[in-house]
Amino acid sequence: MFNGEVIAFAIVAFLLIFSALGVVFMRNIVHSVLFLAATFVLMAVTYLMLDAGFLAGIQLVVYAGAVSIMVVFAVMLTKRSDLHETNLFNSLTIPGAIISLLVFLGLSWVVVKTPWNIAERPLVDPMAINKIADLMFGKFVIPFEVVAVLLLVALIGAIILALEVKPQK
Amino acid sequence: MITLAHYMLLSAVLFAIGLFGVLSKKNAITVLVSTEIMLNAVNLNLIAINKYIGVDGFYGQLMAIFVIAVAAAEVGVGLGIIISMYRNKETISLDEFNFLKW
Amino acid sequence: MVEFAMHNAWLIPLLPAIAFAAIALLLWPWPKASSTFSILMILTSFVLALAVVYGVYTQPELIEKSMVYTTRWFSMPGLRIDVGIMLDPTSAMMLWVVTLVALLVQIYSLGYMEGDPGFSSFYAYLSLFAASMLGLVLSSNLLQMFVFWELVGLCSYLLIGFWFYKDSAREAAKKAFITTRVGDFGLLIGLLSLQLIFGTLNIPELAEKAVNFQNYVSAETLTLVLVVLFLGPIGKSGQFPLHVWLPDAMEGPTPVSALIHAATMVVAGVYLVGRILFLFKEVPAAMHVVAIIGGFTAFFAATIALTQTEMKRILAYSTVSQLGYMMLALGAASLTASMFHLMTHAYFKALMFLGAGSVLHALHGKAHIHEMGGLYKKMPWTTWTFVIGALAIAGIPPLAGFWSKDEILLVVKEAAHEAPGIYTPLFWLALITAFLTAFYMFRQVFTAFFGPEKPENHPHEAPWNMRLPLIILAFFSIVGGWVGLPWLEKGFGYWVRMGEFHHAEPDYVLMGVSVLLALAGIYLAYLMYLKKAIDPDKVAEKFGVLYKLSYHKYYIDEIYLWFNQMVVDGMGKILYWVDLYIVDGIVNGIGAITRGSGAVLRYTTTGNLQTYALVIFMVIVIITLYFAFGDASFASLFLGGGK
């Protein structure tokens, strides 16, 4: 019953939920961002448990690295010295909580009720990264290129949005 | 024994937490961050399904990679918007940004 | 020549049409050239028509089987319209009448319209009028006929309103157009129904199918269709109750009145009914309608003509009355009598209108017969030709009118043997009308042309170009009826007929009675208006109400006016109210509802991003719940997919 896998999953899941709740419930934005970084790292651990090493790496690099840093920069650029009481709830807390709970219940109901067509053997392959590369540069090369263009557009857009607007004379 | 359902329930929990953050936080940065948590929950789903159901390839993981790429772009643009908002109104509280109405 | 004319009969309407186009586009600045060209063209048509008449005369087989040349006009699935020309004795006779009267009227107009500023356009209209009528006469297809029918109506509108600077002329033109339009609507519906029922409007094909009409339609429906169709001839031929436009039509120049009353406009209705008489013949009820309308109109118009004082108005009502005779003959299933009377009537009515025009010309527009008197000294030609016309219409042998009127009386009497309930009263009405006709015509003759001279009048005889048509028409008014003498073996009735030829024995009693009635009418008029043995005013007093009714034309115009003001305008007011408050109310109400709901619902647009997200997810939850616990197949209707 309580083999290593179950124990590891329980610990990771508990920490993951805890840190995600921390992101939402912290009243200081900086603490929120710290919990966010923890969430991303724990997510990478979950990926590892699912035998998706490549994805775990990407998760660490992109989310835990780049996104977290960007969010920290955004916090720095938008906040004054006093950081207390910077991450408060709005007036929709109670309805939001109810809706979120209902969404969770709905999803759970779907998960439990759906007869999942579980494969006999889990798909585990040490050479998964090669297969993904084959797919990405073969069958899915056009979406790949489109995502590349999208990233470029987002880069330019972000620069233009954040650019200092010179007061006109 | 950990099955697909466990991972999916974990994903559902994370998704609901992210949704709660989106709906009920004032700070625009937190809202953006909460959407990232929701996206991560989705990725978790994709990868878990890839492992337990995907018998003929790593399509789930591939899709997760695309989601991550799009999410990264979204974060970039979103933060740019937040900075622009802050520059205009000296605040990023979403309660102040309700002038798109009657 | 004859062969050429027979095979190219389409030239007969075309030549006046060319004259119209040439005058309208090219010749109008030169009145002399316009009139000369127009007369030349109608003269050529006249010669061609003569050749056609001769050709038909030499080919008796055309009586049974018309000579038809057709060409495709257009066709589509389920509808095929051919146009063409149709030559038989009936149309040949009409060609002769129309071209003769049109030619004489055009010659007459040389003198009558001299110096008029619209001289050229007058000739253009006359040519178009003649062309339309000739086209109508030759039509082999009812739709083609309808086109020319409408052209005739248009030309009458143009010509009645020719002196458009006069209010009365404008009003009369509009009245003529609108009144005939009422009938034309019925005609159009009737024609469409015929097309629907029989699948063709070609007259020869219709004639073939009419015999077995039960294969296509019930007798009741066909009766209804024909009665509706008959509305067109009622309007065009001035039958009661749509006769009101015809007396007003004399507002146009007098030659136009002659043309309208004698040869073109009004006989179109009689001709149309004559053309499709084979259909009417199949359903007796429709025949009875035609006969009753015709007989009643004949009597009705004659009683009005008794008391009118305007020269042309008396003639106009006599036209209505005589057209009633023609319809009555058609209603008695006799194409022969109707067409015979149409022809003789064209002679003497054209003669009398042109004579009246001559008088008006001489007296510079004095129209009332009491302002005239003793004209016979100064205007012998006009007077004596007019007297010939009056004798002819009164029915004095051996003038033309006697023979044709006698023929009509004869056929109605014969029809009375078949259906006494319908035709016997009509026969007596027709006899009384004969008496009345003689009386009112000679009332006019004695008052206007004889009796004491009025010193303030300085009449003068008409110029030669006005006298010549009078003389020619007078000649035909005398001898024109001799083609239909009852003693002839192959007379008019042999040529112009429908169905089997049967030679009616001359009815000498009837002849004697009708001559006696006519003479009595003339003698009474002589006593009252020349001898002054009976004072007309006393008679008028004695008949008080009747006199007033007749003098005011039975108040038909006033009834129509009242109807218009009360019913049409009243409906208009009601519909205006409906439009203003109900139709507009609905439209405005929809607008107000939209505005009001918008004013309330706009507060749901808070502008708060998270509220919107909340609503979105709320809906997602509701849909999920529905899927979970509701009827999934129903939900999938909205969401797409499903099994």
Task: Report on the architecture of this protein.
The complex is a heterotrimer of chains A (169), B (102) and C (643). Chain A is built from six helices and no strands. Chain A is mostly helical and 169 residues long. Chain B has helices spanning 4-24, 28-52, 59-89. Chain C is built from 29 helices and two strands. In chain C, helix 19 runs antiparallel to helix 21. The mean pLDDT of chain C is 83. The chains are: A mainly alpha (169), B mainly alpha (102), C mainly alpha (643). At the A-B interface, helix 1, helix 2, helix 3, helix 4 and helix 5 of A face helix 1, helix 2 and helix 3 of B.
Mean pLDDT of chain B: 88
Query: What low-confidence regions of chain C span 5 or more consecutive residues with pLDDT below 50?
Result: none
Helix content of chain C: over 70%
How many alpha or pi helices of chain B?
A: 3
Integer average pLDDT of chain C: 83
Transmembrane segments (chain C): 12-30, 37-57, 93-110, 122-140, 146-165, 185-204, 216-235, 256-280, 286-307, 314-340, 384-403, 423-442, 468-488, 508-529, 611-629
Domain NADH:quinone oxidoreductase/Mrp antiporter transmembrane (chain C): 139-415
Family (chain C): Belongs to the CPA3 antiporters (TC 2.A.63) subunit A family.
Keywords (chain C): Membrane, Transmembrane, Transmembrane helix
